[in-house]
Amino acid sequence: MTAHSIVLQELPADLQRERLPKHVAVIMDGNGRWAKRRGMPRFMGHRRGVDALKDLLRCCRDWGIEALTAYAFSTENWGRPLEEVEFLMTLFERVLRQELREMMEENVRIRFVGNLNALPRSLQVEIEKSMEETAGNQGIQFTVATNYGGRQEILQACRAIAQQVQQGHLNPDEIDETLFEQHLYTTGICDPDLLIRTSGEMRLSNFLLWQLAYGEIYVTDTLWPDFDRHEFHQALSAYQQRERRFGKV
Predict the structure, then answer these.
(1) The whole model's pTM is what?
(2) What is the CATH number of domain 22-149+191-238?
(3) Which residues are catalytic?
């Protein structure tokens, strides 16, 4: 944890509590580059990235933000070197086992979204356990997008709805946004108000394509392992300076 993170335990005075985003989503980019710049193997960047995510989750809780969604592993990430993919799967599993007790103590509700059936079975077991045990918690909603792809999510929703129409259970005229959203991985979770992407990349990378239709986007050159509470403060400051019109005047 950095000095900035230690200082900013309370909501900074220049932020208006009533104008905070209810839901923040993050694309955690730059772990590998962070490690490379320090002459370390890539997996060290992923380990440090977990620490950054844990601190951001607690920061959201401390500052009164209701929901945080993190892009942990995309459907495209399977194309990375096998050694790195296997390390990530093991890291996810180990972190879940180690952090479950703290999530319970801190009243966190965790949920995983994506095609979870393609993950290693041992990881699926830890995911199911963590979601079941935290389901009754009333604190921050923490959503982890794992083996997630926005296009794939939309396609699977279309297939599910088409099947209902084909079976005569649904009239096409009944299909609206509300019904469509009920078939997304994220059903029951409010859309993000703010998307933060680190490492300076200016793209969505197949993340929450439907849900981010009117989300504000904030990009920082900071690599994810270095994203701390001071950086989050800057992102929220930028968010509160924007006028959200949702297509209206």
Answers:
(1) 0.93
(2) 3.40.1180.10
(3) 29, 77
